[in-house]
Amino acid sequence: MINGLYLSAQGAHTQQIRLDVVSNNLANASSTGFKRDMTVFESHLPFDFVEGNPSDTPEKLANSWGGTTIAEIKTDYSQNPLQATEGTLDVAFAGPGFFKVATKAGKFLTRDGALTLQQDGTLETAGGAKVLSDEGGPITVNPSEGEIFIGAEGIVSQETEGDLEEVGRIALVEPRSYETLKKVGDNLYKNLGSERPAGPETSLKQGFLEASGVKPVNEMVNLIETSRAFEANLNMIKFQDEALGNLLSTVPRL
Amino acid sequence: MLRALNSSATGMQAQAFNLDVIANNLANADTTAFKSSRANFEDTYYEQVVLPGQQNGVGQRTAVGQAVGLGTRIQSTQLDFSQGALQATERPLDLAITGPGFFQVLDQNTNQIMYTRAGNITKNVDGQLVMASSDIGRPLDPSITIPQDATNIAISSDGVVSVLQPGNPDLQQVGQLQLSRFINPEGLVQVGDNLYQQSAASGTPIVAFGGQDGMGVVRSGFLEKSNVEPVKQLVGLIRTQRAFELASQAIQVADEQLSLVANLRRF
């Protein structure tokens, strides 16, 4: 009976984390290029009554046998809808891939293509990270020359005295494994593994931004599910508590 | 559990901020040469619940970690400097710039040069060309003075101001409008009154005359309208409202869960 209480508590606990994830998704319904997170549940190995027992008073619920636990919080990296902005320096990814950017804290990946220029002409994200070229350095345009064009393959060119001149090529990269990407906030990802140049299916679209990948309907369904599953688990706790209480009150006192 | 409450609150806060931006855009739908802003959103921090590679209850190492995001925030409000439509006014002192340039005006309160694209210019009592504003007439910089006896004013596309004076059939040049542009106009500080101020982000102005150095040309007899597109703003308004509502739903669920926990046992 006591073990059942733990199992229900675990169920409620995992639903809470799921609610955290859903809340963060909904909060980021407007974040540029945001990729939604999903909670993946797994069942713990069941408590083995025959072979003996890991303690039923575990130090941590997560270590308790049986019940459920969160296996991972997975990010859905599928393409988000594009939103036309007509901004010269708004660039969106069509297909997989990331910009490689550098901040004081190191190198990161991002799909946030709301770019701006530093006063010396360096291309930056609106969040202030330098966009890196395929040679690894920053991309700098001439502050006193004309319009900037960004091609599908990441080639940045600038109108100079009536001609288009290439000033650099934005590095379009893809992680070798998406499992090594870690969200660090500010629309940035830290890649704990390595990258390779993005393939032919990746292209940039100037004048567009990638909208958030949060799908309100899915998240609302998640919200309802998580809320009800949480409730059900709590009801189970209540029920077991009552049952225990009844048992204790009916045991004849010696 | 309270993570959900907090991160939903950040969502509502950021959407409320977005609403402020959209409301200001819509309020300025008729402001001369107004440039609309948009709010960029970004995710905040991620709390690492389980580090990748941590051992789980059955001694296996997790392949990936568990990170829970803690909400959203406004990354920046970005100005959209796309050209506004030109409206013909047929008044010679109504000026519009087609291109990225700005007019330079001197703010006499601060003795600072400010930048504007609102070209509804008038003369003050001394004949100086000033930018019309509700509280103060800021003269153009460098200043241009129209002689008291001038009967007609003409402004060419490169900004040369000429006047016609009685007894003289030829146009007399009295000055030329100087324009500036910035490598990063989005880094300008908006100070109201249709004015922008240089900042460390905008860079120093590139100064030239109309038609030079990619400045664009001056069109006399036209005003640049606001580049606010009402349809786009209204779509943004709807999205903002719904995103706000969605975040509030998540708060409600978190609240209900807390209440369920609080009422789990009555003593």
From TrEMBL, chain A:
<keyword id="KW-0282">Flagellum</keyword>
<keyword id="KW-0975">Bacterial flagellum</keyword>
<dbReference type="InterPro" id="IPR010930">
    <property type="entry name" value="Flg_bb/hook_C_dom"/>
</dbReference>
<dbReference type="GO" id="GO:0071978">
    <property type="term" value="P:bacterial-type flagellum-dependent swarming motility"/>
</dbReference>
<dbReference type="InterPro" id="IPR019776">
    <property type="entry name" value="Flagellar_basal_body_rod_CS"/>
</dbReference>
<feature type="domain" description="Flagellar basal body rod protein N-terminal">
    <location>
        <begin position="5"/>
        <end position="35"/>
    </location>
</feature>
<comment type="similarity">
    <text>Belongs to the flagella basal body rod proteins family.</text>
</comment>
<dbReference type="InterPro" id="IPR001444">
    <property type="entry name" value="Flag_bb_rod_N"/>
</dbReference>
<feature type="domain" description="Flagellar basal-body/hook protein C-terminal">
    <location>
        <begin position="205"/>
        <end position="249"/>
    </location>
</feature>
<dbReference type="InterPro" id="IPR053967">
    <property type="entry name" value="LlgE_F_G-like_D1"/>
</dbReference>
<keyword id="KW-0966">Cell projection</keyword>
<keyword id="KW-0969">Cilium</keyword>
<dbReference type="InterPro" id="IPR020013">
    <property type="entry name" value="Flagellar_FlgE/F/G"/>
</dbReference>
<dbReference type="Pfam" id="PF06429">
    <property type="entry name" value="Flg_bbr_C"/>
</dbReference>
<feature type="domain" description="Flagellar hook protein FlgE/F/G-like D1">
    <location>
        <begin position="94"/>
        <end position="157"/>
    </location>
</feature>
<dbReference type="Pfam" id="PF22692">
    <property type="entry name" value="LlgE_F_G_D1"/>
</dbReference>
<dbReference type="Pfam" id="PF00460">
    <property type="entry name" value="Flg_bb_rod"/>
</dbReference>
<protein>
    <submittedName>
        <fullName>Flagellar basal-body rod protein FlgG</fullName>
    </submittedName>
</protein>
<dbReference type="GO" id="GO:0009425">
    <property type="term" value="C:bacterial-type flagellum basal body"/>
</dbReference>
<dbReference type="InterPro" id="IPR037925">
    <property type="entry name" value="FlgE/F/G-like"/>
</dbReference>
Automatic annotation (TrEMBL), chain B:
<dbReference type="GO" id="GO:0071978">
    <property type="term" value="P:bacterial-type flagellum-dependent swarming motility"/>
</dbReference>
<keyword id="KW-0969">Cilium</keyword>
<dbReference type="InterPro" id="IPR053967">
    <property type="entry name" value="LlgE_F_G-like_D1"/>
</dbReference>
<keyword id="KW-0282">Flagellum</keyword>
<feature type="domain" description="Flagellar basal-body/hook protein C-terminal">
    <location>
        <begin position="219"/>
        <end position="263"/>
    </location>
</feature>
<keyword id="KW-0975">Bacterial flagellum</keyword>
<dbReference type="InterPro" id="IPR010930">
    <property type="entry name" value="Flg_bb/hook_C_dom"/>
</dbReference>
<comment type="subunit">
    <text>The basal body constitutes a major portion of the flagellar organelle and consists of four rings (L,P,S, and M) mounted on a central rod. The rod consists of about 26 subunits of FlgG in the distal portion, and FlgB, FlgC and FlgF are thought to build up the proximal portion of the rod with about 6 subunits each.</text>
</comment>
<keyword id="KW-0966">Cell projection</keyword>
<dbReference type="GO" id="GO:0009426">
    <property type="term" value="C:bacterial-type flagellum basal body, distal rod"/>
</dbReference>
<protein>
    <recommendedName>
        <fullName>Flagellar basal-body rod protein FlgG</fullName>
    </recommendedName>
</protein>
<dbReference type="Pfam" id="PF22692">
    <property type="entry name" value="LlgE_F_G_D1"/>
</dbReference>
<dbReference type="InterPro" id="IPR019776">
    <property type="entry name" value="Flagellar_basal_body_rod_CS"/>
</dbReference>
<dbReference type="InterPro" id="IPR012834">
    <property type="entry name" value="FlgG_G_neg"/>
</dbReference>
<comment type="similarity">
    <text>Belongs to the flagella basal body rod proteins family.</text>
</comment>
<feature type="domain" description="Flagellar hook protein FlgE/F/G-like D1">
    <location>
        <begin position="96"/>
        <end position="163"/>
    </location>
</feature>
<dbReference type="InterPro" id="IPR037925">
    <property type="entry name" value="FlgE/F/G-like"/>
</dbReference>
<feature type="domain" description="Flagellar basal body rod protein N-terminal">
    <location>
        <begin position="5"/>
        <end position="35"/>
    </location>
</feature>
<dbReference type="Pfam" id="PF00460">
    <property type="entry name" value="Flg_bb_rod"/>
</dbReference>
<dbReference type="InterPro" id="IPR020013">
    <property type="entry name" value="Flagellar_FlgE/F/G"/>
</dbReference>
<dbReference type="InterPro" id="IPR001444">
    <property type="entry name" value="Flag_bb_rod_N"/>
</dbReference>
<dbReference type="Pfam" id="PF06429">
    <property type="entry name" value="Flg_bbr_C"/>
</dbReference>
